[in-house]
């Protein structure tokens, strides 16, 4: 892919989400020698979800740096590399493993700039994936975005489509702050139109994925797809839902969310992570504080049950919001 | 145990000057803390000066270090400005971290100091990453991680030394064994009698050195740094020392006897030792060293005065203080 194609009209192709991420990594590594990828199983194996497939052949083992199973060593090395001039992209296989690396994420990467009075910047991306739906059970299925949203100094990105995955990953790699980039394991094999060549989606910008007048569904990651399916069902009942894909949880695009709420006057926040202390509470509180007079009903939250993710397929589905759940709560809200 | 080697007058005086500066800085910090001018907590490096001085004398400005909660000594040995250090302790705008970090987070990135660290073992992987940068960019820079005996029992020690060894990174891991992990004596924290033996498990050289003898530290670190700089990989250097003060200012030290504290402080004093051998080897006279001491005392007075005159740290500005790009 030549850089000049970036200015060509936005030709697109259908790509899987993991292929779109792969393309972003390849283009950014071609563009900037300082970008390296570091993580487990990322070389010959191509990553647990094939996001780094083929990159070893293209860039070699020094830039596709496969590591032993050493999560805090990997993340800490990325922090040190970022402080000293590289732009590392870490792949942590599951977000559930972040616990092993949390000190380097929270006490080091997130705070170095602040603690050092602005002397440092930490341009690193920590890519990982979460979410349920594959029978991986409690230690491989969580949605932990609220952990990272609560730490000053991190940015937090959760793309739902292949095009956003490509554009947001490229922007995250070029960003000068540590970015937590959370993918969803059931999005990797979803397809969508993806612009060829350079494609940047700015951090901090939400997107209306479906326009509507009757209520706003604010959501992110895989639940965006569920919300769109639910919206199609609602439309057949004469309810037009607007679906706002937050895309970047930190910084949050308050303006777009508030503009939508001021149009529809009703809001449903949906996420897969458990409800208690979830990021949906932050979004709902923000809307309540900033647009209380525009609301015709209290904001509603639809989120995961307060339980570890169970194994059996029917149980797994029963604890996170499904399409039917969104339809049901949306109808309650609009009545 | 690496033995001390003869060194020349200039090196001897440089090492003495750095050690004396660290000791005087710590004495003045302790005094300022007692006067309630320093907020929070400080951890004195007194007694361990030979390690920072001996190691950093082998480093260039563009080499990197990561430091610890007991970080004043490393910072000074890597070339920091004393005024900006005191200003940080006093919460001033001219401090290294503009009053946002304090003693446990002083960094001086222009001199390659990637920061003190309030997390025991937190700097070890960061130095490893800095060494990765040097290797990746093909420079001959070296990264040194200072950490204590306590950190040698953290997971970061294991993961980082293994990564550095398999990737042959230009890193030097300097374990400052000051005999206590906070209140826990080394004997109760390690079943192995020599921490340097752990290097075998990673496939790197392990060197055990008398951390009270700055000549021995200088020589051992010199070999380790040269090895790293010439692409031969990392080294673990374990330097024995004794922490003269408690873990932190005001530590009641219930885990140590009065006899130990008073006796060991006299017995294990790298600064007094340095004076003795410099005189014995006729590298400088008593008068020469007194002059060094007096000059440092003056420098410290000036630095404190400069810091005290500086404005208080400016209010937190968001998001600029927290995010580089927004």
Describe this structure in words.
The complex is a heterodimer of chains A (335) and B (326). Chain A is α/β, with parallel strands linked by helices. Chain A folds into 2 domains: 14-195, Rossmann fold, CATH 3.40.50.970; 207-334, Rossmann fold, CATH 3.40.50. In chain A, 36% of the residues lie in helices and 20% in strands. In chain A, strands 3-2-4-5-7-6-12 form a 7-stranded mixed sheet, sandwiched between helices. In chain A, helix 3 (71-83) runs parallel beside helix 4 (102-109), helix 8 (222-236) packs across helix 12 and helix 9 crosses helix 10 (279-291). The N and C termini of chain A lie far apart (51 Å). Residues 1-5 of chain A have low confidence and may be disordered. Chain B has 326 residues and is α/β, with parallel strands linked by helices. Chain B has one domain: Thiamin diphosphate (ThDP)-binding fold, Pyr/PP domains (Rossmann fold). Helices cover 44% and strands 10% of the residues of chain B. Chain B is built from 12 helices and 7 strands. In chain B, the strands form 2 sheets. Chain B has a 5-stranded parallel sheet with strand order 1-2-3-7-6, with helices on both faces. In chain B, helix 6 links the parallel strand 2 (143-148) and strand 3. The radius of gyration of chain B is 19 Å and the shape is globular. Chain B starts with 8 loop residues before the first helix and ends in a 17-residue tail after the last helix. At the A-B interface, helix 3, helix 4 and helix 5 of A face helix 5 and helix 6 of B.
């Amino acid at each position: 892919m030549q850089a000049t194609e970036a200015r060509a009209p936005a030709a697109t192709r259908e790509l899987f989400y993991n292929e779109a991420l792969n393309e972003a990594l390849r283009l950014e590594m071609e563009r900037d020698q300082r970008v390296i990828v570091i993580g487990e199983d990322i070389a010959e194996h191509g990553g647990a979800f094939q996001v780094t497939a083929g990159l070893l052949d293209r860039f070699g083992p020094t830039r596709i740096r496969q590591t032993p199973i050493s999560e805090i060593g990997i993340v800490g090395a990325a922090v040190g590399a970022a402080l000293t001039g590289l732009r590392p992209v870490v792949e942590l296989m599951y977000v559930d493993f972040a616990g092993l690396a949390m000190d380097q994420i929270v006490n080091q990467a997130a705070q170095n700039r602040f603690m050092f009075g602005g002397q440092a910047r930490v341009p690193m991306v920590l890519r990982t994936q979460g979410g349920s739906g594959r029978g991986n059970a409690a230690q491989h299925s969580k949605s932990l975005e609220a952990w990272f949203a609560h730490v000053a100094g991190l940015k937090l990105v959760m793309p739902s489509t292949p095009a956003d995955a490509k554009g947001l990953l490229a922007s995250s790699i070029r960003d000068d702050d540590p970015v937590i980039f959370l993918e969803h394991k059931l999005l990797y094999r979803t397809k969508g139109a993806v612009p060829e060549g350079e494609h940047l989606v700015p951090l901090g910008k939400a997107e209306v994925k479906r326009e509507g007048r009757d209520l706003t569904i604010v959501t992110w990651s895989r639940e965006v797809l569920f919300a769109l399916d639910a919206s199609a069902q609602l439309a057949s009942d004469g309810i037009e839902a607007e679906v706002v894909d937050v895309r970047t949880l930190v910084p949050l695009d308050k303006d777009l969310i508030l503009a939508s709420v001021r149009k529809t006057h009703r809001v449903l926040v949906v996420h897969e992570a458990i409800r208690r202390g979830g990021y949906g509470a932050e979004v709902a509180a923000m809307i309540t504080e900033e647009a209380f007079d525009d609301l015709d009903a209290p904001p509603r939250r639809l989120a995961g049950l307060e339980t570890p993710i169970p194994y059996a397929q029917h149980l797994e589905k029963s604890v996170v919001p499904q399409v039917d759940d969104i339809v049901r709560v949306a109808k309650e809200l609009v009545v | 145990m690496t033995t001390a080697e003869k060194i020349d007058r200039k090196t001897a005086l440089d090492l003495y000057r750095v050690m004396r500066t660290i000791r005087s800085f710590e004495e003045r910090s302790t005094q300022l803390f007692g006067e309630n001018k320093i907020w929070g907590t400080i951890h004195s490096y007194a007694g361990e000066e030979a390690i920072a001085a001996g190691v950093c004398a082998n480093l260039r400005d563009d080499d990197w270090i990561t430091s610890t909660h007991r970080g004043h000594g490393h910072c000074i040995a890597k070339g920091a400005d004393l005024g900006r250090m005191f200003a940080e302790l006093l919460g001033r705008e001219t401090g290294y971290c503009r009053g946002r970090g304090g003693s446990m987070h002083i960094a001086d990135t222009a001199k390659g100091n990637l920061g003190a660290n309030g997390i025991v073992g937190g700097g070890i992987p960061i130095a490893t990453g800095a060494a990765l940068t040097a290797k990746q960019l093909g420079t001959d820079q070296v990264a040194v991680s200072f950490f204590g005996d306590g950190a040698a029992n953290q997971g970061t020690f294991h993961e980082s030394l293994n990564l550095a060894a398999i990737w042959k990174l230009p890193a030097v891991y300097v374990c400052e064994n000051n005999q206590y992990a906070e209140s826990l004596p080394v004997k109760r924290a390690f079943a192995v009698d020599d921490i340097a033996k752990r290097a075998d498990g990673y496939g790197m050289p392990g060197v055990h050195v008398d951390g009270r003898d700055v000549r021995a530290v200088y020589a051992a670190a010199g070999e380790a740094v040269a090895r790293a700089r010439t692409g031969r990989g990392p080294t673990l250097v374990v330097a024995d020392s004794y922490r003269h003060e408690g873990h932190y200012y005001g530590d009641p030290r219930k885990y140590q006897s009065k006899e130990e504290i008073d006796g060991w402080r006299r017995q294990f004093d790298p600064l007094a030792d340095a004076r003795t051998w410099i005189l014995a080897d006729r590298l400088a006279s008593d008068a020469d060293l007194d002059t060094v001491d007096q000059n440092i005392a003056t420098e410290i007075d000036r630095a404190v005065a400069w810091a005290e005159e500086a404005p208080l740290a400016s209010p937190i500005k968001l998001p600029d203080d927290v995010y580089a790009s927004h």
